[in-house]
Specification:
About 75% of the residues lie in helices and about 0% in strands. The protein is an all-alpha fold and about 120 residues long.
């Protein structure tokens, strides 16, 4: 694949993956996106847990695909966590993996609880 399309894919993954992360954290707050949010979060958790059986816990196929593109573009030394990658790209600071993973798990569990609550237990108006 030529470098033009690799750059297009890089920008696509950077944008799409970042928006998806924000959506996975906050999509449950908006009534029109609650069901989609729950499905999105379940796919994310499936990737982390079930695909993680073969690829390592926390495996994200979007991160894998994006990192393949970045390696083709000559990028090296990328952290395992896409969140750590984003933080480093945006600020220049690479946080410790354990800190990032802890924050990711806590926020994801909170978003999942919120999503389950609004989708199954909250009375509809």
């Amino acid at each position: 694949m030529n470098t033009f399309w690799l750059h297009v894919l890089n920008y696509f993954f950077f944008g799409f993956h970042t928006v998806l992360i924000v959506f996975n954290l906050f999509g449950w707050l908006y009534p029109k996106t609650r069901k989609l949010h729950l499905y999105s979060l379940l796919i994310t958790l499936f990737s982390w847990g079930v695909l993680g059986i073969w690829y390592g816990f926390g495996y994200c196929f979007l991160t894998d695909w994006h990192y393949q593109v970045l390696r083709e573009l000559g990028e090296t030394g990328m952290p395992n966590s896409y969140i750590a990658f984003l933080i480093e790209k945006l600020t220049g600071w690479l946080p410790e993996a354990r800190l990032v993973n802890t924050i990711i798990i806590v926020l994801t569990v909170m978003a999942f609880i919120g999503s389950v609550w609004v989708n199954f237990f909250r009375k509809r108006k």
